[in-house]
Specification:
The chain has 5 helices and 5 strands; from the N terminus they run βββαβαβααα. The protein has helices at about 45-60, 80-95, 105-115, 120-130, 140-165, and strands spanning about 5-10, 15-25, 30-40, 65-70, 100-105. It has a single domain (about 5-165), classed as Ribonuclease H-like superfamily/Ribonuclease H (Nucleotidyltransferase, domain 5, 2-Layer Sandwich). β1 (about 5-10) and β2 form a beta hairpin.
Length: about 170
């Protein structure tokens, strides 16, 4: 029997950071928790601290085995990319300080895995999270993106496990 794994997905942002936790056992996916962390306006350092502190609490409450986070994309605005990188760094630090492995997937890879198209829009991702996780209503955009990062890792993990077992 396949061991259950708890995955924390993170969609980093300096204004809103999406968080989603699922449990995966083979092809079975179960929603554990999701939220969009709306961060205070103002000083970036305070927002980064808020991301870190809130993720510390979520990690303590949900006890994930691994963190799946969206890679930084190349933005048109270098300042936006830099700020996003800081938010992502605060999230990665929260994971690493809890001894959790961190895996990274591009936004295109996440969308292709969960929707079947790398250029899927936000509504399609929300719909698939509702369907795949058997939710009554779709989570908001940022929480859906975080759940999608977790589901992406669950699928990749399942495929890798299946391939390993097939070669034994």
């Amino acid at each position: 029997m396949t061991k259950a794994i708890t995955i924390l997905g993170i969609d980093p942002g300096s204004r809103i950071t999406g968080v989603g936790v699922i449990q995966s056992r083979g092809n079975d996916l179960k929603h554990i928790y999701s939220e969009s962390l709306t961060l205070p306006k103002g000083d970036l350092a305070i927002r980064l601290h808020d991301i870190y502190a809130r993720l510390q609490t979520i990690i303590a409450q949900t006890r994930p085995d691994v963190v799946s986070i969206e890679k930084v994309f190349l933005a048109r605005n270098p300042q936006s990319a830099l700020v996003l990188g800081h938010a992502r760094g605060a999230a990665v630090l929260a994971a690493v300080n809890n001894g959790l492995p961190v895996v990274e997937y591009s936004a295109t890879e996440i969308k292709k895995t969960v929707v079947g198209r790398g250029r899927a829009d936000k509504a399609q991702v929300q719909h698939m999270m509702r369907v795949l996780l058997s939710l009554r209503v779709a989570p908001d955009e940022d929480a859906s993106d975080a759940l999608a990062a977790a589901v992406c890792h669950a699928h990749h993990q399942h495929i890798n496990t299946t391939l390993r077992e097939a070669t034994v």
